Amino acid sequence: VTDFAWTPERAKALDRADPIAHVRERFVLPDGVVYLDGNSLGPLPRSAGAMVATALEGEWGDRLIAGWTESGWMEAPERLGGLIAPLVGADPDEVIVTDTTSIALVKLLVAACRARPGRATILTTSTNFPTDLYAMEAVAQLLGDVAVHRVEPAELRGSLAADAAVLALTHVDFRTAEMFDLPGLTRAAHEAGALALWDLCHSAGAVPVGLREHGVDLAVGCGYKFLNGGPGAPSFLFVRRELQSELANPLPGWLGHAAPFDFAPDFRPAAGVGQWLTSTPQVLGMAALEAALGCFEGLSIEAVRAKSVALTGLFIEAVEERAPGAVELASPRSADRRGSQVSFRHPQADRIMEVLAAGGVIGDFRPPDLCRFGFGALFLTYAQVLDAAGRVAEAAGQPSAP
Ligand SMILES: *Cc1c(COP(=O)(O)O)cnc(C)c1O
């Protein structure tokens, strides 16, 4: 007998009514595992094996170099960009798949600073992801005439002084899932004369972003988190169409040339987002990412978000009612400020995550005291999330669900 509001029956009823429940079948998920780490590495799409095998044997093996022209390899960066575009509210000709997030970030930061000469700062938060901060410091050193200005999130608007070249933020915080007001901050950046660059690593595939709707200038994002593209999957970058002829790729390569096979001695950028390609497309990695993007077929990002909000809300409520006071919520309680992740503080967070992992509940520990859980709405069930909540409550040292 239980007086908990979240009962297994209630969770199962949500699963029966879940309009995107069928999508779970598109993934390979080990038995007995509740995977709450898809925000670090999404699970394997069922179609990825065949798509990678086709790229290997059917294309590379059989066609050799003709793969470039006969197998769509050359168009893959823009084709995959077109598949990501609707998930982030961009037009297909504004997104390209290339590089990795850290490299794409450096390229866009340099281009943004050069497009706003005379402006002295890159504005960001001290809470930003390490790679983003390292990239900004390196760009400042490289350019010599800009400095990185790190502030607390609450100080951002007040810090958008007249000297900011670019406001560079990560939309959803990797520790707490706190989500910035992207429309409002983008508007504030523009009012101050700065460009707005957003890192969408923890947003793409989980949270609607509305890049065009909100006038975002530049964005980057990860292929292997909520997009499920596999370990080390290439990243994507977005350049607003109106800026495409103004901004220049600081790492030009022959494949971003307007006519690569003229082998001209001087660089002339391709029109559109194509100039951001520096190198030869990573065909094998892109085959897995293309399979993963196929898993979003027929899904709106709004439907994904609705389930994600319901899953994270259930998880918070169920942990708190089963173990009152045992953990402290480190994520926003308000769903509209929370990405697809829930973090709790506990002095023994590392031990809790080990106990959970031993029982098949996979999340991760973020020092010093965070238990971090990611929620992939494409493949989790409400029943699994309730089960995991009960185990978190138990591991945190409080009475568990009967
Ligand atoms: C995961 C993540 C990255 C990863 O960058 P890589 O170059 O793919 O290693 C960058 N920025 C943020 C905010 C991230 O969450």
Write up this protein:
By secondary structure, the chain is α/β, with parallel strands linked by helices. It has helices spanning 8-17, 48-63, 67-70, 76-88, 101-115, 130-143, 156-159, 182-191, 283-294, 301-322, 349-358, 382-395, and strands spanning 27-28, 34-35, 44-45, 95-97, 121-125, 147-151, 164-170, 195-199, 218-221, 236-239, 328-329, 341-345, 361-362, 364-366, 370-374. Strand 5 (121-125), helix 6 (130-143) and strand 6 form a beta-alpha-beta unit. Helix 1 (8-17) packs antiparallel against helix 12 (382-395), helix 5 crosses helix 6 (130-143) and helix 10 (301-322) runs parallel beside helix 12. Pyridoxal-5'-phosphate is lined by residues 100-102, 129, 131-132, 170, 174, 199, 201-202, 222, 235.
